[in-house]
Write a structure and sequence with these properties.
It holds the Pfam family Terminase_2. It is a single chain. The chain has 89 residues and is mainly alpha-helical. The protein has one domain (2-70). Helices cover 63% and strands 0% of the residues. It contains five helices and no strands. The radius of gyration is 21 Å and the shape is flat. The relative contact order is 0.09. The mean pLDDT is 88.
Length: 89
């Protein structure tokens, strides 16, 4: 479960933890996510991680909204560069 929490991909997490072929992981990894005990443990671990970090769901949503509305132009300048570009022959 910790591997799934780290990468949020059931198939890849299963491959990383167990020595199985991709086809087996493709079926078994997502199937585990349907298990109620696994779902409850994932929820518990996520909640514990948020508490450890000192954030809640509203903090995360606020950050996501800020990122979604961000303008890349606020961080970098587009246009003429002071660098010389050399082309190879």
């Amino acid at each position: 479960m910790l591997e799934f929490l780290r990468i949020s991909n059931a198939t890849q997490a299963y491959l990383n933890v167990y020595d199985v072929d991709r086809k087996t992981a493709f079926v078994t990894g997502p199937r585990l996510l349907g298990n109620v005990r696994v779902q409850n443990e994932i929820k518990r671990l996520r909640k514990a991680k948020l508490q450890e970090l000192g954030v809640d769901a509203f903090d995360l949503m606020e950050d996501m909204v800020v990122e979604a509305r961000a303008d890349i132009g606020d961080y970098i300048d587009f246009g003429k560069s002071n660098q010389t570009v050399y082309e190879r022959d």
